[in-house]
Amino acid sequence: GAVVSQHPSWVICKSGTSVKIECRSLDFQATTMFWYRQFPKQSLMLMATSNEGSKATYEQGVEKDKFLINHASLTLSTLTVTSAHPEDSSFYICSASSGRGTGELFFGEGSRLTVL
Amino acid sequence: AQSVSQHNHHVILSEAASLELGCNYSYGGTVNLFWYVQYPGQHLQLLLKYFSGDPLVKGIKGFEAEFIKSKFSFNLRKPSVQWSDTAEYFCAVKTSYDKVIFGPGTSLSVIP
After folding, report:
1. SS (H, E, C) chain A
2. CA-to-CA distance for A92 and A107, rounded, in angstroms?
3. Are A106 and A2 in contact (CB under 8 A)?
């Protein structure tokens, strides 16, 4: 299957700082990327949908000024957690769709954020 | 709003036992259905998917699932589980809006 890579796989930061997580599709062009958040032993919660070259669409309850998403190219989307706080600590997972109608998502390895 | 429910939070089975994990969704339109698996310490992998046609779909590692439209269900089955099937299983639904919504997950523990 297609490969999606996330970086960094884990990051620790101080409260109040901003953290950027990258999501890359390595062998296909991703017209649409999705960002999920997974709490321990819970399911994936869709945060936002990003389409290349346009603004992200955020799910209800997700602060768009807190979680900045940029999808500047067909192979890269970034999630920036601004002014991070301990409650933002979580596992963030991106996924990508090639847009060829199969509907299948390809997932990154995830990025574990710990805010001290 | 669309939602996905999974019947069991945690299932414990002995090796060679049969498995059935329930999944129901709420969405009246056309859906694509998926089962994903997350092995300990690994990222999500696709087990199988349903788009159209035969409602009984076969996936990897001996898993299969049946789409019953009238019941809005897409249950996952395996006739004989192995210890290596221990993982978290997620049912997911893609709606016509292209969003994929995940169920809460079922943790499967297989005892050797």
Report:
1. CCCEEEECCEEEECCCCCEEEEEEECCCCCCEEEEEEECCCCCEEEEEEEECCCCCEECCCCCCCCEEEEEEECCEEEEEECCCCHHHCEEEEEEEECCCCCCCCEECCCEEEEEC
2. 11
3. yes
Rounded Cα distance between B38 and B47, Å, is 10
Ranges of chain A with pLDDT below 50:
none
Q: What is the pLDDT of residues B48-59, one digit of tens each?
A: 999 889 999 999
Residues of A in contact with B100 (CB under 8 A): 34, 46, 95, 103, 105
Q: Is B78 helix (H, G, I), strand (E, B) or coil?
A: strand
**Joined tokens for residue A78:** 């970034």
At A23 the pLDDT is 95
Distance, CA of A35 to CA of A42 (rounded, Å)? 16
Sequence-ordered list of residues with C-beta below 8 angstroms from that of B98, at least 6 positions apart, any chain: A32, A49, A97, A103
Chain B hits for A41, CB-CB cut-off 8 Å, are 107
Cα–Cα distances (Å) from B86 to A8, B73, B106, B110, in that order, read: 27, 23, 11, 5
Position B105 confidence tier, pLDDT thresholds 50, 70, 90:
very high
Average pLDDT value for residue range B75-97: 92
